[in-house]
Amino acid sequence: MKTSFFTEKAYINGKFVSGKKKFPVVNPANGKTIGSVPDLTVADCKKAIDAAEQTWQFWKETSIGERCKVVRGIFDLINEHKDELAEIMTKECGKPLTESLAEVDYANAFMEWFSEEGKRAYGETIPSLKGDMRLSTIKQSVGVVAAITPWNFPLAMITRKVAPALVAGCTIIVKPASQTPFSALALAKIAELAGLPKGVLQVITSTDSRGIGKELASNPTVRKITFTGSTAVGSTLMAQAAGTVKRLSMELGGNAPFIVFDDADIEKAVQGAIAGKFRNAGQTCVAVNRFYIQEGVYARFAERLTHEVKKLRIGDGMKKNIQIGPLINRAGLEKVQEHLSDAIGKGAIVSCGGNNIKDLFFEPTVLTNVSYDSLIAKEETFGPVCALFSFKTEEQAVTLANDTPFGLAAYFYSSNVYRCQRVAEKIESGMVGINTGMVSNASAPFGGIKQSGLGREGAKQGLEEYLTTKYICYGT
Q1: Structural Rg of the chain based on CA atoms
Q2: What keywords sit in the KW lines (predicted)?
Q3: Is 312 within 8 Å of 278 (Cβ atoms)?
């Protein structure tokens, strides 16, 4: 695979480096190796941390105008090379090329947003209760940041951490998922081309996720950890970071409900369900996991959803008109199969799909008559399975939606404006989509509550995560 931004080297202190060992990266659509990258060690990680600390002393003093100019330059280059970046993404994670192109745009939206929002890191002048003092605050960068990112959005999950960190004056070390390192390395090449000074952004590739993660979380030089991934891993990182009292941003697991009330526009609800469930074959943190349909419209919704799901085309994401790609690995496939078997064993009916076609490809599936005690009601499936539950009243729907330790995203459909406001306030979730199956936006705060994490990404709140407030008191 020969492209100008495809590189098989890690990026430390402004240099693309090789390690003593390498590991292969496999295309989940065909099982073929697309390249190999350095399998770096904890010692290599420490070198990256030291370089980031030295560079931070310079980068934090660089003017905000210059920092934002560099980030804007990255935005322009990503736009210029979006087709190439999308191809890299599809080959390493399997999502359809149209989805990869959409992700490049979404990822780049963070570069654009923060290249402007960075200029608005305002301080305050505070009225003093005493006449002999002058009080004010300023915003300063947190320091060295470590970002640990997942495979399912190999570019967007990085840019929404890197962009605010850079404009805030932080240096950042990125540890991408071992399944999808090439998007991160391509971003490093683009950043270098845009004039980002060496040591400001570094990309560590490694299969030693535990060792590297522990070093980043416990090293006192690292002032902040930002992580997107499972709740279990996030909890471990939080415990490891506690000894040095780091700033934390955690975007963790979800179990998103999708409620359809009997006053909803069913056709729009079906389209929202398709959008909210099947992006990246259901392998997204905000993917719908539990469909709660009011009894009066249950049969109609199930029929229309099944009809539309049958139309979805599954296959290699590099081929035209493909809408559903493969699952990322065998473990992901086995979890989908486990949830399906459990639901069927408890009375669920397969309306369509339900089969592992070949390798890591699983048919888009609709299950009806699903029991409330099924695994799929409690755990995130992370696959292309729609599980339809029924409910009677609004109060029951809200109770069911909140009956989970997670609270990342939630969706519901209704044409009653009073119900919309009422339910949106009662649902325990960091984000709520009303009459839409898509909530992600660079200008809006993304994040969850409960065991779905803490902190926010995107919007002005996303910039604040990389800044500290310093209070200054002048005596007269």
Answers
A1: 23
A2: Oxidoreductase
A3: yes
Residue 169, CA atoms < 13 Å, CB-side half-sphere: 19
- Note the pLDDT tens digit of each residue in 303-357: 999 999 999 999 999 999 999 999 999 999 999 999 999 999 999 999 999 999 9
The token duo for 21 is 């060992």
Q: Which amino acid is at 311?
A: K
* Cβ-count burial 351-389 (b if 16+ within 10 Å, e if not): bbbbeeeeebbbbbbbbbbbeeebbbbbbbbbbbbbbbb
Structural domains of the chain, ranges and CATH numbers in brackets:
10-252+452-475 (3.40.605.10), 256-441 (3.40.309.10)
* Residues 6 or more apart in contact with residue 329 via CB below 8 angstroms: 28, 179, 360
Q: How far is CA 317 from CA 84, 94, 288, 301, 321, in A?
A: 14, 6, 22, 29, 9
The pairing of beta strand 361-362 with beta strand 406-407:
unpaired
- Mean pLDDT computed over 101-118: 98
The per-residue pLDDT of the chain, averaged, comes to 97
Residue 213: what residue type?
A: G
Contact criterion met (CB below 8 Å) for 27 and 91 = yes
Return the active site residues: 251
Whether residue 172 contacts residue 161, with contact meaning beta carbons closer than 8 Å, is answered with: yes
CA angle 365, 368, 370 (to 5 degrees): 110
16-43 mean pLDDT: 97
In contact, 74 and 172? CB cutoff 8 Å: no
Cβ-proximal residues to 466 (8 Å cutoff; 6+ apart), any chain: 141, 142, 145, 164, 165, 168, 170, 224
Q: Which residue has the tokens 């020969």?
A: 2
Q: 103: which 2 tokens?
A: 């992700």
